[in-house]
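Tutorial sheet, problem 5. The two components below are modelled jointly, 548 residues in total.
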Amino acid sequence: MEETLKIVVLVKHVPDAQFDRHLNGEGNTADRDESILSELDEYALEAALQLAEARGGSKAGNQVIALSMGPAGAVNAVKKSLQMGATEGVHLTDEALAGSDAAATSLALAAAVRHLGDVDLVITGMASTDGETSLVPAQAERLGLPQVTFASTLEVDGGRLTARRDADTSSETVEAPLPAVVSVTDQINEPRYPNFKGIIAAKRKSISTLSLADIGVDPAQVGFAGSWTTVTSAEQRPPRTAGTIITDEGDAGIKLVDFLAAQKLL
Amino acid sequence: MALNGALSDGAAATFAEYGVGNILHPSAQDLDDFLVAPKAAYLAAAAEATGAGIVLLDNSPEGKEIAARLGIRLNAGVITDVVGVDQDGTAHKSVLAGSYTTACKATTPVTVLTLKANNVTPEPAAAPTSPGTATVEVPAAAAAARITAREQKVASGRPDLTDARIVVAGGRGMDGDFGPVEQLADALGAAVGASRAATDAGWISHDAQVGQTGKTVSPQLYISAGISGAIQQKAGMQTSKVIVAINKDAESPVFEIADFGIIGDVFDVLPQATAEIKKRKG
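Model answer (structure tokens):
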């Protein structure tokens, strides 16, 4: 294969779903003290690694760059990516980024991608488990690139990509010229676990830290100041409580129907 | 009303009944052959031509993606998953797996909102309108992904999972046999859902998955059968109005949030309930 690829994988740290999640502080943003590499981003990284390896990997000049934006904790997502096999890591961090919505986040990430030079593909995981669902299309629009979301297969040949998208009632095959922005589903592959060799190799790989000044973004365009939406109020719902629990004594199916009838659900 | 595709007589009559003032058509006929980008370009041109302050889209996956690109094109704040809109454009939504309700507002001159189904009741206008029509010039498309093939899947005849009033979902405890779940669902006119364990095992289509990496549902009634109810599953269903859980294991976390829980064998309870419902419904 002649072509080499330069792929940026966006990785984020998300509040770990195993912990209680809360909306806190200025702007009611998610509290991220306890966070991990988003499980869904591992599929994106695996897809990038497979494309690079099919072309001879880093020895042949293919690059897989893990890019994460956020406070200090975000670097953990980059480190994990390097252990899995990314060739380099980039951590975009700036105090002014706090509170960025999808519009502001996409602005910063698009500027960071441009800063990295001629990128062939930007790959992300499917919508993260927190609130940032609009990021891929917003970023593609910022970069003026085609987008392919929810790809369950992804192939690249001759400067074009082919992907399959599965929806509830139909499947689509789509084609787009590179460069392009792609999000992949959890059906696309089985992400590898970092092995001992990968963990050792990761220690020698560099993580560059970028600030907004490095990528030419005015701090006023991002963060709370640059966000186009604001959360004016947030109320915690009272937690659900357990109701009636019975043990089946041979008639639980009937009691279930009695319950549904009493709730007017039949 | 910015249309894509042909306007049927029935739709035209409905638009008039509900008070649509103007119907816009795109200059390009092939928008459906591409993913998202050209549709966002069309809507941006439509919003600019009409001076719209609020653009509303459906909350489908594509609707949300069009909204995201549209927001960048119009420098407009985008709010998705909206369940209600106030007169001043404040949007209401439910976030973090339903544990919070928030009110959001765009700080920009134009607001883009995507509305969830079944939350706003359509009301006819006081007097029907006779909408005018106009064509909107769609800007020459930048590079976009083109759909080269479409394959229809077989329809189940059951309601759509995300909009269904009742969902019956099965998990690991179904042990490869979704028959009892499907039979109860059909007796109730419900959609069939599943936990990730069940879809990963291949017992049922991936489309049926409810939870963190699947669909979020909020039906009037959610019946959980043989699902332990880990947080990833709860994230997709805990805003359901009434939750019923059946599981052999009394320690299953799903019982913590169930309004009615049955510790028992799904292969006894589900068929008995199905037969009883059929009997009562005659």
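Marking note: The first helix of chain B runs from residue 9 to 17. Full credit if you identified this.
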